[in-house]
Write a structure and sequence with these properties.
This is Leucyl/cystinyl aminopeptidase. By secondary structure, the chain is of the alpha+beta class. It has 31 helices and 31 strands. Bound molecules: zinc ion. The site of zinc ion has 7 residues, from helix 7 and helix 8.
């Protein structure tokens, strides 16, 4: 999925939601531990249902502690005890970073010279050991004897079962489903009634019993089950009672006799439900056609946990099966699903029933999709696949670019992966109401209209957005659909890879889109999130639905993609990485994997080159949060590189001993531009030294910023680089220059360099004309400007304005206001002019006003160049007369990219009443679609007039917001970040803390709340430290 709407570069980090209050918590921890691997299909024979998901990291930890020479029984007992210990640790220290082989543990204290205090401690320790022994003794399942501990098989752990809706005990007490029954195939019949916004359905699930069991447990949410029958083997079907436990979205059938391993059985469930009015499950959507009539449609969005809202199913990614879908419709509608249509049957009631072919592949439930709408397609054959793009009829002319791009990319991926796309058709559908950017349903990819539709007139920058979303979703057809992560803890295997492929495929297929600039910028942004203490490891434990939602964040996507780029860049030769992923896809085709499977595949391919072990290097990047700061110090011909965790904390009190295996690259003044100049040094320990001739004037590490780390060069190192750039900008690649700018701002935030040093480096920029360094500097300066503005430091704000216009004034004035072909130049121009007009620079605002007037006078027939539309609409929205004109245009324009820019313009108004109106309109959803509310809030918060209104607004409307956007979802992350990230005072810190903690289960535990609090504290600290310098110097 691409949860990020195309205009937002905001990617929040998420939270560790607490399971502490959950009644499910007790058993999984204990029981997990008793058994080792739970990988399908070889389960331990004893009570396999109790084997729940166990994250790979904890498994490694337990394994690491184990001894070699235990017999099986002993080992079971050992692990129980250890796991108990571990589980205890986990609960008592929820803020600790997760343990990993890369995290150093403090040395154990010894009692060799007992002082009185030490004696007390030692006695206390003995008492604890004794108590633990007692606990273990009485622990069900383990008895200590002379020979050690023996399992006590007569007293199995009995979980506390919850009550079902009908008052009887529900036979399952965990969030993860039992593993004893596995679905093989589903037959789904759906009867949507779009007039009444309801549907009925019938689901037939053919299953295989893997272990003897007396229960079948699966997911169902908001479905009213009206009839259930069960058939075992060749026996007759008979009615069964379905129990439901709503808090876990589970249903179950209990049996008096064991279902036996190896038996086949069929469960048939009939049900009815309402079409969802949010953006997930089987939901209704509508649009207004060209005649002004409202047209309704229904579509699905199942990832991550919403297939269960459309049909009862085993809704976890590892329960793959085949699907056969039948949908009834009125004759004036079309239906679409993952597979091609097999036949159409006329029903007696005048309706038609479409039946689709059974999926030719096993797939996870979150990839199933169906749509009932009156969309029209355009199509094209690519190799063996019919590629089609669907839209509402009015927008058919905006689909051609998508069809052309999807066709090129499909061909590229077929060749690149050396595995053909496995289905006969591939549909790309633009849905009028769609929250995410797009969703990779196998064979039926769904998009937000702005992510798929562009007109012939559209600028290349708009095409870049569409192409990159298509490239992302198509990559998923292999990474995610063909090979799927076993559980959401490894979501990055899907998303990191699709994000990596989205950028790298476009560099080859559509090089004129300059996608490399965007990839560089998203790597910078990912670091900002990952530097916070509230960040998480790429591969991290998740249990609750909110935690699953929260995995859709910049760590899974952008950091995932960044570390893949770093790996690729560090491997010898271009083909190694590709060979490795082809091997991975072949080896696990149709299956589920975890992170280690990927590293192992890459290591296997790599072994022949005697290169370092990929697995060893990469686990340091996936198993711990954050990234390193590499500090360079030179003495004579010795260069010492030291690494530490780049951790932003407001009190400098939290230190970690995390170490990474860093493929450090560097260039120097004698050779700095060509790839051949790059030298590689692997930094695995805290500090290492390399030799360089003393004649080397300067060093630049992290060549072209392909590594996920920040570099501090020390005062002398920075001065040498600054001097080099001042005399000749082109001594470094533009990526390296952008990377220096990003790094020095980051170091200032960390408190390692003063703001004075930052501005010293920026001095060279009066000669800078390349897009990436200018964009990075503008973004950082604008952030600083907004912080000062919100802090009401009016004098400094005025001086900042003068500074920015001085540094970039001539570049701003050199920009033209006519059509521009190059994407890179468009990016540069729009960033410069948006800043200039945002600062009310007269020349800029005059030009923008004139262009808007011309546009209005021509009734929209003269075109504003695509990359200038935003700045023009922003300026127009500041005028009392033009704001209503813009609103009128917004309501009538059909072209989505333009419409969205108008909306951002409208939301950028500094008129308080209009701000309040637009926030409420976004929530109401008639004039402004609710899917756009996060964008509206984000835009309002950037301005001075609206950010406090927005803060009030989300507090007052929190319950409405989480009704539309699930707790933890990317939309909610964006909202929280937007409204809080510019606070920098103690008073606001208290307010934010107070509000979110009052939410309790309605969002208090989100990682983004943690992130918001940390950010405010960091802003506060930065201001305290740097305001005096700024006042003196700026
Ligand atoms: Zn994705």
């Amino acid at each position: 999925m691409d949860p990020f709407d195309s205009n937002s570069t905001e990617r929040a980090n998420l939270p560790r939601n607490m399971i502490e209050n959950s009644m499910f918590e007790e058993e999984p921890d204990v029981v997990d531990l008793a058994k080792d691997s739970a990988s399908f299909p070889t389960f331990p024979a004893l009570d396999p249902d109790e084997v729940a998901y166990e994250p790979r990291s904890s498994r490694l930890l337990v394994r690491g502690l184990g001894e070699n020479d235990m017999d099986e029984d002993e080992e079971d007992c050992e692990s129980s005890a250890r796991l108990l210990g571990m589980s205890f640790m986990n609960r008592s220290s929820s803020h600790r970073p997760s343990s990993s082989p890369y995290t150093r543990q403090p040395p154990p204290r010894s009692c060799s010279r007992p002082s009185a205090r030490t004696m007390v401690v030692c006695v206390l320790f003995l008492v604890i050991v004794a108590s633990m022994t007692m606990v273990l003794y009485f622990l069900p399942g383990c008895t200590f004897t002379k020979t050690g501990c023996k399992p006590n098989k007569t007293t199995p752990i009995e979980p506390v079962y919850p009550e079902s809706t009908n008052g009887t005990l529900f036979p399952w007490a965990q969030l993860r489903l039992p593993q004893s029954v596995h679905p093989l195939s589903y037959d789904l019949t759906l009867n949507p009634d779009l007039d009444n916004m309801i549907f009925s359905g019938r689901t037939v699930i053919d299953m295989l019993v893997l272990h003897n069991t007396k229960r079948i447990v699966l997911h169902s949410a908001n479905l009213n089950i009206t009839k259930a029958t069960f058939k075992l083997g060749d026996g007759d079907a008979s009615d069964v009672t379905v129990l439901e436990y709503k808090p876990a979205q589970q249903i179950a059938v209990k049996f008096t006799e064991d279902l036996k391993a190896g038996q086949h059985c069929v469960l048939t469930l009939e049900y009815s439900a309402k079409l969802s009015h949010t953006y997930d499950g089987f939901y209704n959507s509508s649009y207004t056609d060209k005649d002004g009539n409202k047209r309704v449609l229904a579509a699905t969005q199942f990832e991550p946990l919403s297939a269960r809202k459309a049909f009862p199913c085993f809704d976890e990614p590892a329960f793959k099966a085949t699907f056969l879908v039948k949908i009834t419709r009125k004759p004036n509608y079309k239906t679409l699903s993952n597979m091609p249509k097999a036949n159409v049957t006329a029903l007696p009631n005048g309706l038609l029933r479409d039946e689709f072919e059974r999926t030719s592949v096993n797939m996870s439930t979150y990839l199933v999709a169906f749509i009932v709408a009156d969309f029209t397609p355009i199509s094209k054959n690519v190799s063996e696949t019919l590629v089609s793009v669907y839209s509402v009829p009015e927008k058919k002319e905006h689909t051609e670019y998508a069809l052309d791009t999807a066709s090129k990319l499909l061909e590229f991926y077929n060749n690149f992966f050396e595995i053909g796309y496995p289905l006969k058709k591939l549909d790309l559908v633009a849905i009028p109401d769609f929250l995410a950017g797009a969703m990779e349903n196998w064979g039926l990819i769904t998009f937000r209209e702005t992510s798929l539709l562009v007109g012939k007139q559209s600028s290349s920058l708009e095409k870049q957005v569409v192409a990159s979303v298509i490239a992302h979703e198509l990559a998923h057809q292999w990474f995610g659909n063909l090979v799927t992560m076993s559980w959401w803890n490894d979501l990055w295997l899907n998303e990191g890879f699709a994000t990596y492929m989205q950028y790298t495929s476009l560099q080859t297929v559509l090089p004129h889109l300059d996608i490399g600039n965007l990839f560089l910028a998203v790597r910078f942004r990912a670091m900002e999130k990952d530097a916070l203490n509230s960040s998480h490891a790429v591969s991290t434990e998740v249990n609750t639905p909110e935690q699953v939602e929260e995995m859709f964040d910049s760590v899974s996507y952008e950091k995932g993609a960044s570390i893949l780029l770093m790996l690729k860049a560090s491997l010898p030769g271009d083909g190694q990485f590709r060979k490795g992923i082809i091997q991975y896809l072949n080896q696990f085709s149709g299956l589920n994997t975890d992170t280690n499977d990927l590293w192992n595949s890459l290591t296997q391919v790599d072994v022949s080159t005697q290169h370092q072990n990929v697995s060893e290097m990469m686990s340091s990047w996936t198993s711990q949060k954050g990234f390193p700061l590499v500090t360079v110090s030179r003495k004579g011909d010795q260069v010492t590189l030291t690494q530490e965790h780049f951790l932003l904390t407001s009190d400098n009190a939290t230190h970690t001993s995390s170490l990474w295996n860093i493929p450090v690259t560097y260039v120097n003044d004698s050779c700095s531009l060509a790839p051949e100049c790059r030298q590689v040094f692997t930094l695995k320990t805290k500090s290492e030294t390399l030799r360089l001739p003393e004649s080397v004037k300067w060093l630049k590490l992290n060549y072209r910023n392909t590594g996920f780390y920040i570099v501090h060069y020390g005062d002398e190192g920075w001065a040498a680089l600054r001097d080099a750039l001042s005399s000749n900008v082109s001594v470094l690649t533009h990526e390296d220059r952008a990377s220096l700018i990003h790094n020095i701002f980051a170091l200032s935030r960390l408190g390692r360099v003063s703001v004075r040093h930052v501005f010293n480096l920026l001095d060279y920029m009066t000669n800078e004309t390349e897009t990436t360094p200018v964009l990075e500097a503008l973004l950082q300066l604008n952030n600083l400007y907004r912080l000062l503005d919100k802090r009401q430091e009016h004098t400094l704000v005025a001086r900042m304005k003068v500074y920015i216009l001085h540094q970039f004034g001539s570049l701003m004035n050199n920009q033209t206001w006519v059509e521009e072909e190059s994407v890179s130049k468009q990016e540069l121009r729009s960033a410069l002019l948006e800043t200039a007009c945002g600062l009310n620079e007269e020349n800029c605002t005059q030009q923008a006003k004139a262009l808007f007037q011309k546009y209005v006078d021509s009734n929209g027939t003269t075109r504003i160049p695509g990359d200038l539309q935003q700045v023009v609409f922003n300026v127009a929205a500041q005028s009392d007369e033009d704001w209503p004109t813009l609103l009128n245009m917004y309501e009538h324009v059909t072209y989505d990219a333009e419409k969205r820019k108008m909306l951002r313009g409208l939301a950028s108004t500094q008129d308080a009443r209009r701000i309040v109106w637009i926030l409420n309109a976004g929530l109401k959803g008639d004039i402004i679609q609710t899917q756009e509310l996060p964008l509206v809030i984000n835009t309002v918060c950037n301005g001075f007039a609206g950010y406090l209104f927005a803060w009030d607004f989300i507090q007052e409307n929190w319950d409405h917001l989480i009704e539309k956007f699930p707790v933890g979802s990317f939309a909610i992350q964006t909202v929280i970040k937007s409204v809080t990230s510019q606070f920098s005072t103690q008073a606001h810190l208290y307010q934010v803390k107070g509000f979110f903690s009052s939410l309790k289960e309605r969002g208090a535990q989100m990682r983004s709340v943690q992130e918001a609090l940390e950010t405010i504290r960091l802003n506060q600290r930065w201001m305290d430290k740097n305001l005096p310098t700024l006042k003196k110097w700026l």
